[in-house]
Amino acid sequence: MLHLLLVVLAATAASAENSIQRIRRAAIAGEKDPAQAMHKIIDLADCQDLKKLCAHQKSTDNLSMLECALTFSSSQLEELPEGCQHELWLQQRQLQLPTWIENTFLPTYCAAEKSKLESCLNSVHLWICLEHQRLKLPQNNACHQHLRRGYEALSHDYSAVDDFYTACGLIVEEHKCGRLNIDHLPSMLAQLGTVQCLQSSAKSSLDPACTSAISSIELQRGMLELFRVCQNDLSSLCPQEKVGSAGAFKCLVRHKTHSAMSPLCASQITQRDEEMGRDYRVSHGLAKACKDDIKLYHCRRGVSEDKHVRLAQILLCLESVSKNGTRLAPACLSELGDHRRMLMTDYQLSPELLNDCADDIPKFCPDEHKAQLVNGMSSTGGEIIHCLLEHVKARRQQRRVTAQCQRGLETLIKVSDAGEDWRVDPVLRRACKPVVDVACKDVEGGEARVMSCLVERIGTPVMRPDCEQALLIIEYFVARDFKLDPQLYKHCRDDAVKYCRAKRQWDDAQNIQMDPERGPMILPCLHRMAFSEDEHQTLRKDCFKEVKRVMRQRAVSMDLIPEVEDYCLNDLSLFCADCTEKGSEMECLQKNMDQLQAECKTVVVKYTEEEAAHVELNPVIMNVCGEAMQQHCSDILKSGKDNGDMMDCLIAHKNDADLRKDLRCRAAIEHFQIISLKNFHFTTKFKEACRPFVQRFCSSSATKNEVVACLSEVMRNDTIKAQRHQIPKECRHQVKAQLYQQRESIQLDPKLANACKRELEQFCEDQKGPGQALECLVRKTTSLGKPCHHAIFLVKKSELGDSGTDYTLLNTCKDMIYKFCPKIDSIKLLDCLKTYKDDTQFDQRCHLVVVNRMIEQNTDFRFNPSLQSACGKNIDRYCSNIVASALPNEELNGKVIHCLKDKFRQSALDEPCAQEMIKILQDQALNYKLNPLLQVFCKSEIQELCKANMEADEHGQVAECLKTAFLQKQIINRQCQMEVATLIAEAKADIHVDPILENACIVDLLRYCSKVAAGNGRKLSCLRTLLKDTPNSLEAECREKLERRIEMFHNADDTLALPPEDVQQLVQQVVASPARKFFLVILMSATGMVFLTGIFLGRATKRAMGLKNK
């Protein structure tokens, strides 16, 4: 009987269950059966407890039963049979189905108001619309009450489980797994019982969509556990946050390393961090706020719903969307910023770092790692991440993290976009907040503007060391991927794609990083294009501006110049380990350029060329010469174009009064000048103007100084030969500019500095001003050692050959040049100044320099281009033996000029040469110092006999004193006698070379001899004739001077006519004698007599031989 009863009950239950299933399916399918829908749950066998538990309910319809069940305690719900829970779950689910609302709820409870409420059936948010309509109904209206009951039965966060209902509803029905929210959990966790049933009953049959929905609930379950463990921590550390909210979780993460955080809570947070790194949905706030954006922009990239997607992938995708100009939802943007900060705070959010840096963390960051192990903390706020970042840029290979760890860190910097917002990195934020508050408080946030402001402050007093260190670590990575600089990427993306093969998308999975090892260097490419001479390949104006800014900022540190740093790690360790100041590492590499490894040297040379052309790449100059550039070179700053003009401007003004006081700027300029000596390419204007001619004439020259010397020699030879210049004007100008700089500072001529090192210390140690050391060496020429003497000879040869390279002359005589020689070519400036040196308005300092240059010129004909040009043929004809016997790079001490003097007295010179000699002899007559032989041979006589006249040595008084002493037989020294006699005899050839006589007789010359041609002594002969025929017609002073000169001429002739020492001197004396015709007649007569005697004696001898033979 019992058995039969059980069978009947089972059959009845089965029949009832089948009936219920048909009714439920009919309701879901839209079948209208209100009676069945209103009276099924409480009548089910599994739901008999509801009759007792819900006896207080006035109605027993399904909605009332659901309302009643939602008020049960956890223990009451737990006691309900699973079958009843499933039916109640279905009822709650039906409340969200528009078909059930339309076919069951509205006809049953709101039949009269159905027409007004049907418009909500097509609404996206059905119950929000119904709730809005409910509020329009009277409160005593029955429909109003039923709508309120239905809305409350859904729970306030019903929309959170909508995805779960959609993805898993059919499977839940199939396996009867609907469960009530026994533990009264919020949001999606209300379905936790349902999920557990599915996992145990239908795990193998779950489709991807349902699996994904279940994963989301499981993630929320983990979060629930976290908040359970961290309940007290949340209350104490984040009292303002609501339990279970996204804000509460973020607050706990921020306080993870707080001393008040319990170890259990910290451990839970760490676990959640790791899970979040593997699956972004662990972060409920991000998944919810960015749900639509992730779907719209396909951020899952083909990954099925049941698969995990890394947080990094989602963040990169969303950042790429934002960087490419699309606006994300505000809530999503906020979550994006929060998660970027979280990434830089806790490395455990990045699975790449956990795996790739597992060995590097204990090796390089032992203290931080120990704190993690002991305290259960990952770091003290980003310190482990910064520790690893520091070891990416370590100079020595053994102190650098592994390659895979470096890649993980690069990904972290890109995902967190740390270069865009200084607040993302907690270490940077803490270190730089005081700097930002002072120096960047007015800078608008966003797009790395504050980061750019901080970089600009490096090296200034406001910058703090810890801030600079943290900043340079982040900028190290930004410098290696132009995408990480928001302003640069925004303005230059199109140009980078067009000219530099950059990818158009910000987030390129195939090319995550673009450093020298794995892709094109975009920024160097843009920099080259910024200054391209091709009109069809130029950057847009806003991009050009950004490229200049970035290149200027990168020059602050070698770490920020990857195209150099990545090739020079070994050399930086070897030569520059102690260089810590701004820009000092590049200066160090430049100083040691000749010792660098080949690859490093190549990139340093290239960068130095760019630095020379664009001063913004020189951080030292930019840092210490800002005021000088504003004051002296503002036009170049305003133009925005440099190409070497700025350095030329600074060099031109470095000896101005303000820069002489600004020692740091002056030192930076001189350092650049010294570095530029290593290669002529380091001087932009010089390189552009002279490169073809360097290859043509100076291919074997190594340094810039050698190149300059080589080109200068070519220019000099063209000038002397009076031929068309082989080197064009632009290059000649640059060569002169380089020579001018060498004369200003002896350090810019290393060969000269090395050759004269001892002499500089001995004679010129106190000569520190511009050009003073060189002038000192020139004055001490006779005391110099051979190497130094030879080097100074070459300097004088170059300097006296072209006045445009004479620093001392140009600067001392600047006003006189402007006044007397404004339109004279620089090569002729000395000749012009010579003409005006005795003008009453001529500056005395300039006068002294000009006279000194004249003295130097008279020591060697090679120092006088005008003499070489005018007398070249005569020198070859008469003085070639002197030139041939000259030692290399040593002065001839006036020997060639002395040779030409002799020919001048004999009137044997060509007219151009004779005129040039007249100028020289005039100057020598007025200043004995211009006559090197006279100075040497008559040194003691000048000191003893003419000491009183030495003060007036530029008015011919010393020469006149020596002539008088010669006349009075006071000169004993034979060589001095000869020199003074020569000086006297020169006036016989042309009165112009005797200024004192010429000045005394100027009136008589104009009165009586104005029509007499100059030269060959004709003017003097005119005066001598007048003296002989009509002596009283001459002025008294002229007559007196002339009589003394004639007496001197006789004595000079006697001295110069002493017996010759060899045949050559004999011939020279006969040819020079006024009686040379008489000597010629005697010679011919003697020759004739010898000839006749020979004929006579020849016949006599022939006759005698004939007689003998007979």
Automatic annotation (TrEMBL):
<dbReference type="InterPro" id="IPR039728">
    <property type="entry name" value="GLG1"/>
</dbReference>
<dbReference type="InterPro" id="IPR001893">
    <property type="entry name" value="Cys-rich_GLG1_repeat"/>
</dbReference>
<keyword id="KW-0812">Transmembrane</keyword>
<feature type="repeat" description="Cys-rich GLG1">
    <location>
        <begin position="400"/>
        <end position="462"/>
    </location>
</feature>
<dbReference type="GO" id="GO:0000139">
    <property type="term" value="C:Golgi membrane"/>
</dbReference>
<dbReference type="GO" id="GO:0017134">
    <property type="term" value="F:fibroblast growth factor binding"/>
</dbReference>
<keyword id="KW-1133">Transmembrane helix</keyword>
<feature type="signal peptide">
    <location>
        <begin position="1"/>
        <end position="16"/>
    </location>
</feature>
<protein>
    <submittedName>
        <fullName>Golgi apparatus protein 1 isoform X2</fullName>
    </submittedName>
</protein>
<feature type="repeat" description="Cys-rich GLG1">
    <location>
        <begin position="908"/>
        <end position="970"/>
    </location>
</feature>
<keyword id="KW-0677">Repeat</keyword>
<feature type="repeat" description="Cys-rich GLG1">
    <location>
        <begin position="595"/>
        <end position="658"/>
    </location>
</feature>
<keyword id="KW-0325">Glycoprotein</keyword>
<dbReference type="Pfam" id="PF00839">
    <property type="entry name" value="Cys_rich_FGFR"/>
</dbReference>
<keyword id="KW-0472">Membrane</keyword>
<feature type="transmembrane region" description="Helical">
    <location>
        <begin position="1078"/>
        <end position="1098"/>
    </location>
</feature>
<feature type="repeat" description="Cys-rich GLG1">
    <location>
        <begin position="660"/>
        <end position="719"/>
    </location>
</feature>
<keyword id="KW-0175">Coiled coil</keyword>
<feature type="coiled-coil region">
    <location>
        <begin position="579"/>
        <end position="606"/>
    </location>
</feature>
<feature type="repeat" description="Cys-rich GLG1">
    <location>
        <begin position="327"/>
        <end position="396"/>
    </location>
</feature>
<feature type="repeat" description="Cys-rich GLG1">
    <location>
        <begin position="971"/>
        <end position="1031"/>
    </location>
</feature>
<dbReference type="InterPro" id="IPR017873">
    <property type="entry name" value="Cys-rich_GLG1_repeat_euk"/>
</dbReference>
<keyword id="KW-0732">Signal</keyword>
<feature type="repeat" description="Cys-rich GLG1">
    <location>
        <begin position="726"/>
        <end position="785"/>
    </location>
</feature>
